[in-house]
Amino acid sequence: MIFYYPLLIHDDDGYWGEFPDVEGCHAQGDTIDEIIEDATLALELHLSEMLKDGEKLNPPSDIKSIKTDKNSFVSIIRADVNLNKGNKSVRKTLTIPSWLNDRAVEMNINFSKTLQEALTRKII
Q1: Phi, psi at 57, each rounded to 5°
Q2: Which CATH architecture describes the domain 1-87?
Q3: In which band, very low, low, confident or very high, does the pLDDT at 98 lie, cut at 50, 70 and 90?
Q4: Which of 21, 26, 84, 87 would bridge with 48, disulfide CB 3.0–4.6 Å?
Q5: Alpha carbon distance 61, 19 (integer Å)
Q6: Per-residue pLDDT tens for 35-68?
Q7: Cα–Cα dist 115/124, whole Å
Q8: CA 92 to CA 51: how far, in whole Å?
């Protein structure tokens, strides 16, 4: 299923965005391209989980009704929830330099989530 939702993007020393119609779904990036990529992934995952949990989706707002200021603008994000529907997780073993592992552990980085996000960005 394909969905289109407006993303309110704020330009504030980098970009961060929020979906007015999808509570709790946010995105960020250093460039416009990065925030669009991050927003697409975030929206696909968020909507996929909502549908899987049987939650009702809010209809997308008309972009003309979304208030902006001089540091914000609206973009439409396309989400294909079929990319994420019904995927069974598999265990993978990987090799990384020890310094990278140590630093990631110090920062409490979730390895599985980070790898999944990176692979999804690379593939999409």
Answers
A1: -85, 135
A2: 2-Layer Sandwich (3.30)
A3: very high
A4: 84
A5: 10
A6: 999 999 999 999 988 988 889 999 999 999 999 9
A7: 14
A8: 27
**Range list for CATH 3.30.160.250 in the chain:** 1-87
Strands 72-80 and 26-29: unpaired
Q: What is the three-class DSSP state of 13?
A: coil
pLDDT band at 8 (very low <50, low <70, confident <90, very high): very high
pTM of the model: 0.67
Q: Quick check: 22 and 47 in contact, CB under 8 A?
A: yes
> Token pair 């439409």 is at which residue?
76
Residues in the chain: 124
Residue with tokens 């391209």: 33
Please name the amino acid found at residue 115: L
Residues 96, 102 contacting (CB under 8 angstroms):
no
The rounded distance, in Å, linking the Cα atoms of 13 and 75 is 18
Q: What is the pLDDT of residue 81?
A: 86
Give the helix ranges, DSSP H, for the chain: 32-52, 98-106, 111-123
